[in-house]
Amino acid sequence: MDRVEAVYVIGHKNPDTDSCVSAVALSELRSAEGMANVEPARAGDLNPQTAFIFDYLKVEPPKYLSDVYPRARDIMNTGIVHVSEQTPLQKVMDLMRVEGVRSVPVLDSGGRPKGVLTIMDLANRYIGGMEAGGAREVTTTMANMVETLGAEVVHDFLGAGVATLGVYVGAMQENSFVEIISFRDPRDCIVVVGDREEIQKRAVGMGVALLVVSGGFRPSEELIELAQKKNVSVVVSPHDTATTALLLRFSTPASSLCDGTVDSVLPDTLVDDLRHRLTSMSGVAVLDSDGVMQGFITKSCLLKKPTTGLILVDHNELSQAVDGAEKVEIKGVVDHHRIGNFQTTHAIPFICDPVGSTSTLVAELYRASAFEIKRATAGLLLGGVLSDTVILKSPTTTERDVAIIKWLEEKSGLEHMAFGTEIFAATSSIAKRGHFAVVNADHKVFEAGEDSFGVGQVEVIGFDELNEEKEGLLAELVKVRKAKGLVLSTLLVTDIVCGTSLLLATGTKEVIYNLGYPKLEESMFELKGVISRKKQVVPHLLSVFSTAR
Fold it and tell me: Which residue in 112, 133, 307, 400 has a CA-CA distance of 20 to 30 Å to 198?
């Protein structure tokens, strides 16, 4: 069965409105264009503003993905080559040869594995178990012997049970045969003989468990009647005596080599964890919570291409991407930030333009396409542009953002100023959101050489509330800095009405001293006219770290 590839259109960690609405809109467009199995996703919780917009427009938010690390279910073989507990080992070996596999799971009637047979198991059975006398023993059933030999049943008194019997070949004088077989209870014996009628009669007369007449010779009616009286099972094998005796040893049920233990993993087991386990074993079964086999994994499965693909929106740096992004295929990027340093194995669609929002770029793609945008989707993108450009007040705003706003107003039926004001008014309270949510909801980490720093942002209407919440926000920034190993952790508090910001900052004394912003009080700085993290704050901080080195 072919593996189905899932393609997720997904924004950065700590997703903001722009990344979430862009994911939904772009996945709709790519699906309309014919891309299969594409769906929107997010790499974190919705912030209050984003949740408000999706609720307002009655649109389902993107699904949450904690990570995209390849898992057992992504690489397992689902068209499982398997056998039942009753399958003869001869058939197991034939299956291995035809299918080109080295291990075969043995399943019960409910699909639960009882063991896994490998080529080495079979070799140990038939090569390592050839000590004197051991080669004679065979654990089998009547049905398996008939199937393996392709035999004709004359009498069957053995039934369906499993029995361990000794195989004796009647290729000698009658007296010698009797002497050899006399050391064992006849009811535990299988006698293989060709057209030697005297041996046939003696074996039946002794009451052996099974008489196998080789060479396709039909036993006489007299012998058949005697076997009936003695409760001796009789079958006719089409093979010669030597081949028949050999095949009987391969009629053993597969379950006879199983001890009931199976190396297994759950479908969610990480592929990276499997690599270590598979160094010392031929394969592992993938079982669901009920113990039913879902697939099987061998070393060759580790070479499979990941089944998950990503289209990144509103970011292009792996440090900001969903966990595991480096393990899967990046199939495209639509972004409006600086270009990071990730690599791909081949060319991909990569759109990275200096506009105010990723929503602008996605809306332009829709406008240029042959597909009509949904009313609600246009509303989402309108909210994305308004959020990222702070209702077109941000210095990142371009003429393209202004132009696309007009197109989105027409398609959504919403007036941008009224919608934007409603968006920010609904989510501007710091106290209601809580310090953890305010600091972490839109906190991004940036690399500056060997150093890392973080910048979060929250939009408010007026700074009155900040005085009461400042200490709690700073305490949360300290926690974030320690947890992420940052030299600087900041929160940009932006008044969208006045178009200015205050910066709360925690870090080393040297870094704080070199920030270069007017200091209002301890750990708080004034950034007049600054409302853009991307275009105004991050470039300045990057230059601060560059100068310090």
Answer: 133
Report yes or no on 410 lying in a domain: yes
2 burial via Cβ count (<10 Å: 0-12, 13-18, 19+): exposed
Q: Other CB atoms closer than 10 Å to residue 294's CB: what's the count?
A: 16
Whether residue 53 sits in one domain with residue 27: yes
3-class SS of residue 374: coil
Q: Is residue 531 part of a domain?
A: yes
Cα-flanking dihedrals φ and ψ of residue 495, to 5°?
-85, 110
pLDDT string in tens for the chain (549-residue length): 445 589 999 999 999 999 999 999 999 999 999 999 999 999 999 988 999 999 999 999 999 999 999 999 999 988 888 999 999 999 999 999 999 888 889 999 999 999 888 888 888 887 755 555 567 889 999 999 999 999 999 999 998 899 999 999 998 888 888 888 888 899 999 999 999 999 999 999 999 999 999 999 999 999 999 999 999 999 999 999 999 999 999 999 999 888 778 889 999 999 999 998 888 887 899 999 999 999 999 888 999 888 899 999 999 999 899 999 999 999 999 999 989 877 888 899 999 999 999 999 999 999 999 999 999 999 999 999 999 999 998 888 999 999 999 999 999 999 999 999 999 888 778 888 899 999 998 899 999 888 999 999 998 888 989 989 999 999 999 999 999 999 999 999 999 888 899 999 999 889 999 999 999 999 999 999 999 998 899 999 999 988 765
CATH number at residue 182: 3.40.1390.20
Residues 318, 189, single domain; the answer is no
Query: Do 193 and 90 sit in the same domain of this protein?
Result: yes
Cβ neighbours of residue 360 closer than 8 Å, sequence gap 6 or more: 336, 385, 398, 400, 401, 404
Structure tokens at 178: 């009797």
Q: How many domains does the chain have?
A: 3
Cβ-based neighbours of 109, under 8 Å, separated by 6 or more: 84
Identify the domain boundary among 199, 223, 257. 257
User: Is 338 buried (19+), middle (13-18) or exposed (0-12) by CB count in 10 A?
Assistant: middle
Q: Which residue has the tokens 């050839």?
A: 130
Q: Mapping DSSP to helix (H, G, I), strand (E, B) and coil, where does residue 292 land?
A: coil
- The whole-angstrom separation of Cα 379 and Cα 414 is 7
Domain that holds residue 96: 84-257
Mark whether 58 and 91 lie in a shared domain: no
Tokens of 149: 């030999």
CA 46 – CA 13 distance, rounded (Å) = 10
Residue 102, domain member (yes or no): yes
How far is residue 352's CA from residue 333's CA, in Å, rounded to a whole number?
A: 8
**In the beta sheet, which residues pair with residue 212?**
192, 235
